[in-house]
Design a protein that fits this description.
8 copies of one chain form a homooctamer. By secondary structure, chain A is of the alpha/beta class. Chain A folds into 2 domains: 107 residues, no CATH class; 136 residues, 3-Layer(aba) Sandwich (Rossmann fold). Helix content of chain A is 45%, strand content 16%. Chain A is built from 11 helices and 9 strands. In chain A, strands 6-5-7-8-9 form a 5-stranded parallel beta sheet, sandwiched between helices. In chain A, β8, α10 and β9 form a beta-alpha-beta unit. The longest helix of chain A is centred in the last third of the chain and has 21 residues.
Chain lengths: 256, 256, 256, 256, 256, 256, 256, 256
């Protein structure tokens, strides 16, 4: 329809309904404003129910409310990340169907059910302390329409727990590993499979962990190849990256 | 064939050719040694010509030679990364068909031509100083059988160069962005597309660049989602991660 | 009038109203105390209404109050930065006309209206979370008598928002870019214009953002030239630097 | 003339010499490629002789040569930064008039004399060890057409040297301070004047200097306002930032 | 008994009660799940009363309660580390015999008395501020069945206090040194003895202590050999490492 | 008197009142315990009223109370550093004459008036935000019997304030400079005098100040010689170091 | 024999062969000089052949030669660490039986054969690039009389290699793990055993490895307990720590 | 004589030999240039032979030569620090009496013998690798006229070496401790004495030593009070600081 707008303009010029100068003027800045080239959204093309996302950290409650009010006018699902329980109480007033996932600090407002993908995402986590981030990843992915499996509490301190669940690894198309402390889980998982592994370091730990730096460096320096790292505690980002891969997979399934 | 080995063993037990005790003994440690469960190699299943890889940094020339001599007995292609020109001279004596890519510091020995994938990888880089890493990524991906396009010298200091080449971005399935200095390229690219972006910070820069730390932090903290980061200067790792995604795509194409 | 003081002293010596020894004594330490050479204030020379500034962080409420009481005896405008709402409540008792800008944490007391400059400052910011710092810059600049425009929420994750507003960039004489997360906005803006760009990294972000370090390094290492960086979250400092440039511009306009 | 191209295209549509579809096609990607909006170059508009710049670090000699050969076809002056003496020897073969400044590691090829600005830049430096960076700044600024003064070896260890030269500070429009070790010079200078101060930390020092980090942090945290900081050892960047300010000044002089 | 399971399976094959295919299937993943090879627990083999451990940091009270409820069904002792007083109140409801050590933040539930080892562990600490970590180490070791001595408040600022207690050092088999500030105690102790010294840096200090980094680096760089370092404030880890050594000693005593 | 103890012991041996073996036994560990060689306290030798010191940070109120109760049995003055107001309330109950200095967080209990030294210490500070640390230094020094002068709010942003008070610098024997932000004050002061300058970086600042790191590095890398640096915010340590110097001076005055 | 010296002295006093004063004088400083309390060397007590060690880094060749010449006068074995090949050439002139281990950079001079311990040390390493450090550890331990096994090239990228060699882990008394890159090997090994694990991070890696920092932090933050960490590349220190443990084991074997 | 200059000027005004305007003009900038207030040099007042100092690092040989040639015109002694052997060869041509201290990298040219102070400086160092820095300190102090004692190789790994030499500590007025690795020596020394201790961390070490950072942090965080720290490897700075203290002592001796 942007193309359409230019077409109309050109037709008007052709029909002498618009002078060359006037057309020139309209064209000058138009491409950036209206062509909408940025983020050609494959997701939305492919899938209904793909949500709008609000990152709540650093925004006041009234700012979040204002943004959400605007979004609620449309029919999109809404996903609010890094949301406190207090914020949820306030959101519920304007969106009574909103659901809150406390550990993952997510608010979800589902207006339209999103069909799940055929491709599968596995979220693997080390210890129970990593649960908040792992759930942020799993629930976000689910909200993005991804089929999600969970394999939790399989840290390398007891590697038999991971090895006893190789089927999970084998059946996934994409794997997210969530781990704090030293974050060695990502290396071990990537050493066992040959598929994309997204690594999320968490800030779980203390002392020389330096707020997740230890796990971050571990994942960036892994001796096992095939790992893409996201920011510390960035469960959302991992899920989003997974969704870009999986939606390519869904497209590939259709195209052959 | 490992399965086969266990099958034979069980058959022997069944046929009383082997005592239960003796079988038990053989079985005890076997799974780890021989089942070969680790790295169920989708790549090799899918594609002939998938190379063996040697990381040359920190190995002496004679160590590399010894490993390569062993590999040459088989029919696999061979890819040696971080290889100096001197090393190449020595390798050439035992592998006369070896080719050297100086800027990318790669040695390739191709025994079997690998068919290129249908899915496409785009390698985007900022400045000409990032060329070495960008080429490591592009050539590695190519050696792994990936169809590769290059879009170089499109740093954000002159953003029209990137915007004038949106077609490249739109046609790729996976994008690798290679950038030093402040590494902002990854954010801009990920803001323009909705597909997996693999970001490689390079050590190009000086002063408060701290050997690539600036670009690394930029990429990890990108305000644009959908970015998986690898280690500084790790062109190989980016290509390998891309290959895990693209081979999932190829499988998806087949499976539908 | 300092010159005048020395002149008087010399005249007294000449007229034998003061002995050489006594004059010598007075002169010895005088230059540093009284010549007032430091900060020859072009600002005040050029513009009435230029405010006195109090940096409130690390000062107790009673200390701020004491300083302000002193300042209120003169006719200058007063600008208090990093001021909490509680502090404002207290200030209001001694300065009932004081106005508080909550997001920017600024208190302003305007006794004299300051005429705006002909030159224009543009404050550009990435996300809504950067608002506090952007407003500290914009409001400070305004209090310093600068004509200010704002272009907010144009982060590089959706670069069309920035590109659709090139007019703003083209019409400014000086640009302040305020950005957290990875801070790539500064590079993109400086790549689009050829005028002084002042970059303010913000502490917005988490994990490997390390309290604004990521954005700071990005801005220092920008591949685009023409950027001067100030401290993390230092909206005031950016505005002040902008004012030194713009007041040079105003002088140049007058001088020709 | 880009405007002209669109005008021609529209006229052709109007005259039915081009179909709407064909025009649409040409227009689609055109703005980014051809409108040349990026870096509307005030410098070139204002001043002949403004040079093309090559950053030589991380480029091979043959790459620099190739770029320069291309540039030499046009009539622009050329400035090559971070150039080794060896590189200069090679450059001289294709550009016999090239001049080399060893301490500043700059190659200059002047085809057209650039008239100096009315506004004045002062380059102040701490110790003789900072000379290389100070000269990179001064010579670059000069090559960009700026009138440059130098005030060297006035480090704060002997503050009378700086105080004895206040006239230099008072007569400049923009000041660049270059200092290594602890970099306190920038604070002292900015405390004495009320004009834009560009601070360049140098890597001069040892131990806990950490390659210039000490001076960088000093300059970013200055208790004196009005300082814009550039990367460690970035004499070029400081000069370029100064030139964006000074060319605004020159424009202001003309416009009034 | 895992061995037993495989034996039964093989016997069934032998007796034709199970087909080779079915046996093969069962065997495939079995080793990792059931052989229980990981952590062949010498401790439990050697000593009754060896406790189960819960690391409480980052777990919600209800999560700790759930884990503990499960553990209480068995007869093992239980040790909960990094436990707040609030948590203890809650634990006491389900385990009335639980004891709380406030400074060490430990909860202990002793169901079975553990006999103390013949080998001796000495816990040495610098200042009274290090007490919390020192006690975490001493009490943990004690709960693990180790004979523990304490030598506190012998920091190097008054080295005669340490030198006056050499007997303690001489009689221990393993020494844990706990120290904050600059952590020099570990070096001095290791210089006085020729036995394993486990060094625990604490986060006691301020400023350039950087949360224990100073003591950590001191201990890693000690000019005295024979020091193994654990994470900052990791009293538990030090005690656990000591227990692995001491239980080897107990075994050696038995074996001769 | 320790000498005396050994003398007695030897005399007993001589007089056959004690066997050689028994004497040997007593001597073995004696030197470390009783010779009291450590910290031969010149201070106490020289000056009555020299206080005992308690560092309160990281100690519980009851621990401080216990230590103080013990000290109160003797006639020494007592100085408690890093003491909160709450702690003071509690201390007052057992030591009603205790005085609290809120900004400096010091509790002092003076039982005996300490005569002031002839040598003079000057405490110089940058901004009013550094007051807490400057006062910790000044009051501590005073409690240690040092004659103290203060020169506050003379930061380098307005260097005339420092230069207008050169007399203070000239009359002191030792100077403590306290400064946050970029900490340049130490360099400027040390550049003006030729006497020992003790530099205390403070944690005053934000962003890339990194909790005082900026000022710390500035002071360690000063281009002016003659500076000894103590830990960030360590006003006490600076005063103590000053007292070691000044008490040497007092001794030198006596000895000639 | 020190005891003996005091005994003689006391006897002389008793026999009036020495005055009390003279004895007192001799005793005063004696304990520190002569009691030889420091490093009561269990090693030498237990085992002949225990070597003297020279750390060659930072010493000139002539300094090493001087130290060695002195040592050669006694009958001890000598071990020189961090020795270059050039140094070895020089050493060989004065010690013709000296042997050089190039990869481990060790020189050994064995004058007396040292009997191996009953307890066993296992040195496990990740990749072939870690060989230098692993061999420094293994050869040092061997020189210290320890029975050493090696298990190399079992990095976690192919975890089946480690799992296939569990026997090695099970049979050792102490384990040294040597790993660079992300250093996850230590965690996996410590998760598999219940015996002391000494972890040596190596500087093998690049980019965000930061010279071994990544592996160091991994090892300090391991989610598996029972790990003592030594400095980056400190193979010697790991072996020495192992020897302190193993010699305690040997003593325990004797004592029962 | 500066006072004198002003006196003359005033007298001329008085005698009408100079107009008030002319005098005013001369006075305006004079104080900073000529009063010579900076660095009122107690040293030179007190002692003949006090040398001029050249810091050679970062200066070219011809720059050093130029500076020295200028200095040689006067009768001062000259001390050149961080001087390479090559530089010395060149210096010797213009100053044949120059002496070179290779380990300390110092060139000394003594024109006048400087009498040694009564006060004594002790330089204590840890290992032989710290010799270069220790000697830079000791020789510099000696060149500054200080009486210097040395106590080398008394690192804390064998603390009896230090304790056996307490007399050295007791007899000094000021102590410089030079130590690399973990730098614990400073803490132990400051714990033993009650006099000013100047601590010099050295860059001796590897791995997590981070070029001297470990020792630096140790010294800044010492639990023993009375330590002033200088930059890593800054032997010169330590000696200079010591000289400022000792010259105060000499003055105190005279004044009484």
């Amino acid at each position: 329809m942007n193309k359409h707008a230019i077409q109309q303009l050109l037709t008007k010029v052709k029909n002498n309904e618009l002078s060359v100068e006037a057309a020139l003027n309209e064209l000058k800045d138009l491409p950036f404003k209206d062509l909408g080239f940025a983020k050609v959204d494959n997701h939305r093309d492919l899938r209904n129910g793909f949500p709008e996302v609000i990152y709540c950290a650093g925004k006041t409650a009234s700012e979040v409310e204002a943004i959400m009010t605007e979004m609620l006018k449309q029919d999109n699902n809404i996903l609010a990340t890094r949301a406190s329980k207090e914020l949820y109480q306030q959101v519920k007033k304007i969106a009574p169907t909103a659901v809150y996932y406390e550990r993952a600090r997510l608010i979800m407002i589902e207006k339209e059910v999103i069909a799940k993908t055929k491709s599968k995402l596995l979220v693997v986590s080390g210890g129970t302390s990593d649960l908040a981030v792992a759930e942020e990843a799993a629930l976000t992915a689910s909200a993005l329409g991804i089929k999600v499996e969970r394999l939790y509490d399989v840290g390398v301190a007891g590697i038999h727990r991971l090895l006893g669940n190789l089927d999970y690894l084998n059946e996934a198309n994409v794997i997210i590993t969530v781990a704090g402390m030293e974050g060695a889980l990502a290396s071990v998982v990537a050493g066992l499979v040959d598929k994309p592994v997204i690594a999320v370091p968490t800030s779980v730990g203390y002392g020389s962990n330096f707020g997740g730096l230890a796990a971050l460096l571990t994942m960036l320096n892994s001796c096992a190849s095939g790992i893409g790292v996201v920011n510390i505690d960035n469960g959302f980002g991992a899920a989003y990256l997974a969704s870009t891969i999986i939606l390519q997979l869904e497209k590939a399934r259709k195209e052959g």
